[in-house]
Amino acid sequence: ALGAAITVLQGGKSPPPINFVGQREALRLLTHYVGDLHQPLHVGSVYLTDAGAPMDPATPQDARMHDNAGGNKILLKGWKLHATWDDVPGKTTTSLLAGAGATRARQVPATTGPIANWPATWASESIVSARSAFKGLKIERKAGDQWPATAEEPAYRQSREALQEAQIVKAGARLAQILTTLWP
Predict the structure, then answer these.
(1) Exposed/middle/buried for 183, CB within 10 Å: 0-12, 13-18, 19+?
(2) Distance CA 11, CA 27 (A)
(3) Other CB atoms closer than 10 Å to residue 96's CB: what's the count?
(4) Cα distance between residue 94 and residue 26, in whole Å
């Protein structure tokens, strides 16, 4: 979808199955998708046994049975893990908007290669970052269709907030890189 948005913003047609109405819609969704691509639980997941241990599914059916929907079926303190990662702390937002975000974004190395390859490069990087979302969790036995989890605090929260902040900075820098490449 990111590639399709870039294509439309370059004046091309949206490749199927994506069908952006025009450049305004492509731009709006481009900004959304760049942010999503840098959110670790939007691109990474872990498959779990009923006992809560990580596993490698052997078949597509196995994958469906042991998928936790990007952390939506893992409950940490009664919250979906995915929602915990989506919820950016106010102090992080305030700090980044007060100028620290722009300063740090200028330090993010530019992505090299053709613009069409950038989304895949960033997704691969985010998948590696997603491992941190599960590190430090103790995932319990499945209850119904959810896995309760606990984390050693405050270490897990501090690690999550640091990664969230780093990913937001990268997303901002990379959105700026796309926009300045499309419209120098």
Answers:
(1) exposed
(2) 12
(3) 19
(4) 28
Joined together, the tokens standing for residue 63 give: 């994958």
pTM of the predicted model, to two decimals?
0.89
* Distance in angstroms (rounded) separating the CA atoms of residues 22 and 5: 9
Q: What tokens does 23 get?
A: 């450049």
Give Cα separations from 6 to 3, 12, 22, 153, 183 (angstroms).
5, 9, 11, 41, 12
Per-residue model confidence as pLDDT tens digits over 31-87: 999 999 999 999 998 999 999 999 999 999 999 999 999 999 999 999 999 999 998
Cα–Cα distance list, 4 to 1, 25, 27, 48 (Å): 5, 11, 11, 33
Eight-class DSSP state of 164 = H
